[in-house]
Design brief:
Radius of gyration: 24 Å
Order of helices and strands: HHHHHHEEEEEEEEHHHHHHHEEHHHH
Largest sheet: 4 strands, mixed
Length: 525
């Protein structure tokens, strides 16, 4: 039993089981044998990848959340999230597919002719695609890109170099972002182009990463394209990219890898360390569950996707560092995916790039801060009635205190003057505040998830994880509030004082962190 798995119901739960049965069979060792390729991000060769994608497409998995009119399944993005999670857990090469990377923008902005030529074969698993937004030196700032698109009477000429591109060495198409009107502001100066990678003037260069698989550059040497190469509207590239990134950033693949890495921790990891990792995983699970629930019920997803991205990628790093730190000498060699031997060193290196890709976590923290500081932070989600459960009752009470403290910190501490500005204008303060907000939401959501769980081992696991989360998160929120309020908050007559005292007294109500960590250790042994 996967204690870390999401709570799904109805058709989505049944579909997850179908996905698991397919992936269990298709990713079995005897199927993978002979197809290992450490130079590819998937760890597998192109022959295996295409065969696997075609079969996933035949079963309706690959494009499950694209509109039916575009050959997809017409399901909510929750279904795509669940597939990505399971594919990552099974190590399957069907996450960064043509549909994933190019499907959304082609579906949203493509013409019927563009969809017929490019999207249809991606949906059937026959074609791979890539996205080429970033450039060396531009990083997460798309406003700094220098690739240009110059229009003539009946064509466009693209020049420049796009960088940090996943899978373009095996793709047929790249969606390229270029500046087409440098006189306008960044938000209206860019256009998306569909660039066939066999077009004259296109050169793909593979660049090995520290983990030996390759990212790519695309050199565009005066590449001439027809008018039908424009994707969407001229000058609307920025808004189209923002829509695409918003759709991609909530991927649950990172949580799928976290589940897998938790299960294969070295035997030498002590039980208390394993328990703390599971408590952290339960927090991320709760964020993922919220995203699934929002998508399935049609609620608007905003900063919640960024919370999933930040929390899940940083959990991956924590698990990977712990595993590598406790690996024995015979387990410490670098081993690529699907090769013989433990991959703890590989995983530790692999955990670096998810927190950078699809917008660095610092960028996502900025987006979360902007969303939350414009909202009423005193409003908490409805919490379950847990009066008959002393552990969860303590969790809910602590969450209510943390929520109130978060709102008062935003209202008072972040508006204090500092060097002629406000505290909230400084990124370091905004990020500290975001970490407080993530901690508060973790307290609320883990308590709710535990309350929803039926009696049994899974509930015991979630209850203890909620209490460890509540205890540690409340202290983190208190510490953050004190830091943002400065010296004023340390006085007895300041409103922080009773919060701090209650936070420490609450640590033992319903069981201490140590007691619940011990129970988690027993449950996950």
């Amino acid at each position: 039993m996967r204690l870390t798995e999401l709570r799904l119901v109805g058709e989505l739960s049944q579909w997850r089981q179908e996905v698991r049965e397919f992936l269990d069979a298709d990713m079995a060792p005897e199927q993978v044998a002979g197809h290992v390729d450490p130079t590819d991000l998937t760890g597998l060769d192109l022959e295996f990848e295409l065969r696997h994608q075609r079969e996933a497409a035949r079963r309706g998995f690959l494009a499950v959340s694209l509109p039916r009119a575009d050959g997809g399944g017409g399901r909510s993005r929750a279904w795509k999230h669940v597939y990505d999670l399971e594919a990552a857990y099974h190590g399957a090469p069907s996450i960064d597919t043509g549909v994933t990377l190019c499907g959304y923008v082609l579906s949203q902005f493509g013409t019927p002719a563009q969809k017929s030529r490019w999207l249809a074969p991606m949906v059937s698993g026959e074609m791979l695609g890539a996205i080429a937004y970033s450039e060396t030196g531009a990083g997460n700032s798309l406003a700094a890109i220098t690739t240009t698109g110059v229009r003539s009477s009946d064509s466009w000429e693209l020049s420049g170099t796009k960088s940090h591109i996943t899978g373009v060495h095996k793709a047929d198409l790249a969606v390229v972002l270029a500046v087409t009107d440098p006189e306008k502001s960044a938000r209206s100066s860019m256009t998306m182009f569909l660039v066939p990678l066999d077009a004259p003037g296109v050169e793909v260069k593979r660049r090995p990463t520290i983990n030996r698989w390759t990212l790519c550059d695309i050199n565009l040497g005066q590449v001439r394209l027809g008018e039908n190469s424009v994707l969407g509207e001229v000058g609307q590239g920025w808004s189209q990219v923002m829509a695409a990134v918003a759709a991609e950033r909530g991927s649950l693949a990172h949580y799928g890898w976290a589940e897998l890495w938790l299960q294969r921790l070295p035997a030498g990891v002590p039980s208390w360390e394993r328990a703390r990792l599971h408590a952290a995983a339960a927090r991320v699970r709760a964020f993922c569950q919220r995203l699934i629930d929002y998508e399935e019920t049609g609620q608007a997803v905003d900063y919640q996707a960024s919370v999933v991205k930040v929390a899940s990628t940083e959990l991956l790093q924590r698990i990977a560092r712990t595993a590598r730190s406790w690996a024995g000498p015979e387990e410490a060699d670098w081993t690529a995916m699907f090769e013989q031997g433990p991959t703890y060193t590989y995983d530790a290196l692999e955990a670096i790039h998810p927190s950078i890709s699809v917008g660095a976590n610092e960028t996502h923290r900025d987006m979360i801060a902007t969303a939350l500081l414009d909202s009423d932070l005193s409003l908490s989600p409805p919490l379950p009635n847990v009066a008959d459960d002393p552990v969860l009752a303590a969790c809910v009470e602590m969450a209510a205190d943390a929520r109130q403290l978060l709102a008062r910190t935003a209202h008072h501490a972040l508006r204090r003057p500092l060097y002629g500005r406000q505290v909230q204008d400084f990124q370091v303060a905004r990020h500290r505040f975001v970490d407080m907000a993530i901690a508060v939401e973790a307290m609320e959501l883990t308590a709710a998830e535990a309350a929803h769980s039926p009696t049994g081992v899974a509930r015991d696991y979630l209850v203890s994880a909620a209490k460890v989360t509540g205890n540690e998160a409340l202290l983190d929120v208190i510490a953050g509030a004190h830091q943002l309020h400065g010296a004023d908050g340390y006085y007895e007559d300041h409103f922080l004082a009773p919060f701090a005292l209650r936070a420490w007294s609450a640590q033992s109500r319903g069981g201490t962190t140590a007691e619940h960590s011990e129970r988690l250790a027993r449950l996950t042994a």
